[in-house]
Design brief:
The protein has 102 residues and is mainly beta. It is 0% helix and 44% strand. The strands form two sheets. It has a two-stranded antiparallel ribbon with strand order 1-4.
Amino acid sequence: MCPHCRATILESSGVCPACRHHLRFTGPTVGREAPTTEALTVEGTLEGPAGGEAVEYTMLLTIRNERGEEIARELVGVGALRQGESRRFTLSVQAGGSGSVD
């Protein structure tokens, strides 16, 4: 668990992916983290309506296992867009390392 933001993170993390605080020195004298790769990135933009009332949105993240069973579900954020406004959403999944969840 990150001591700064209390997010659940991998033990092998040198930097918290949620709050980006450094958790420990990872220089050459300390064991290096296993390399990670960005296994998946999805990015999209939601535009406000051309006219009329605001549009509400909900960003929901769901993780399923190989059998399609839901193992995690998080409401990430909600909001509203008026004409001329937009929001860009990015989902990034990093894989690698051999740490366990802390």
